[in-house]
Request: fold
Amino acid sequence: MLVTLARWLLGLLLIAAGALKIGHAEALAGAIAGFRLLPAGIVAPMAVILPYFEVLLGLYLVAGLFTRVAALVTAVQFLVYAAAVASAVLRHIPANCGCFGPGDAAVADWPHVGFDLALAIVAIYIAAGAPGAFALDRRLGTR
Reply:
């Protein structure tokens, strides 16, 4: 049951984070560009796609559909976020993460890196114990 609870909580977090960014691609592009890691030509498309990708991953986790794959992709996503934030901290760049939309003023710092790493660990835990109770994967016979 712990895998299910973790799956739902992480899924809802991703849905909320993605939903708060939808319609704010310009602000998200500014936040992404602020990390100074990606070429300018990638930033705008990423700012449009990323919120929908997060919502989709969240929905898969909440529903328990393709649970193991969704959890592993989520783990990689949070590891990438942690690396980006750590990079900004090490380079003394006052980047704003934009994690929860344009109203989020959280800056890149070590606690943020730790939180992203903790979320990656939760996602790995979900993948290891997938699919959990009440998962569509169980009904479909997939794991």
Q: What stands out?
A: The chain has a mean pLDDT of 94. The two ends are 16 Å apart (CA to CA). The chain has six helices and no strands. Residues 2-140 form one domain.
